Amino acid sequence: MPEIHTGYRLSVVDEDPLRARKEARELLAGLAELDPTARLDLPAPVGPAGAGDKGGPSAETVGLLLSAGSFVAALVQVWLARVPQRTLVVKRPDGATLQITGKQAREDDTLVERFLAEDGDDGTAAG
C-alpha cells in the first residue's frame, strides 16, 4: 500500500531536471536533521524527448515532502537566499500554495515562515 504523506510539499522549479534534482537533494540533506520524515517526491518519468515536445512544460518540479516547522521554514529561507535565481513552490496540507523566488526571500526574510505558520487554522490568508 502506498504511503500517504499529509505534510508540506516543497517543489524546486527548474528548466533543467538534473539541476532541479540536485538542488532538491541539497535542500533535503539540510532538512533531514530537522525533519526525519522529509523525502524526495520525484515526478513520474516521461517518454524520450523529441521534436513533438515543443509547447510542453518548460520547467520541471522536483518535490520534497516534509512535516515542516519554524526551523524548517528558516532553513528554506536561508537556502532560497543563497540561490536567488531559483523558484520554490510551497504547498500546505490545506492546499494553499506560495511561489517564491530567492530574490523575494531576500526581500522578505520571514515570508515562508509566516506562510507555514498560517496553516489554514482560521481559514484566512495573509496578503
Question: What features would you describe in this structure?
Answer:
The chain has four helices and five strands, in the order βαββαββαα. It has helices spanning 17-32, 70-82, 102-107, 111-118, and strands at residues 8-14, 39-41, 60-66, 87-91, 97-101. Strands 2-3-1-4-5 form a five-stranded antiparallel beta sheet. Strand 4 (87-91) and strand 5 (97-101) form a beta hairpin. Helix 2 packs antiparallel against helix 4. The protein is globular.
Q: Radius of gyration over alpha carbons?
A: 15 Å
What structural class results from the helix and strand content? Answer: alpha+beta
Helix share bin = 25-40%
Give the low-pLDDT segments. 50-58, 122-127
The largest sheet has its strands arranged as 2-3-1-4-5
List keywords for this structure.
disordered C terminus, 127 residues, globular, 4 helices, 5-stranded antiparallel beta sheet, alpha+beta
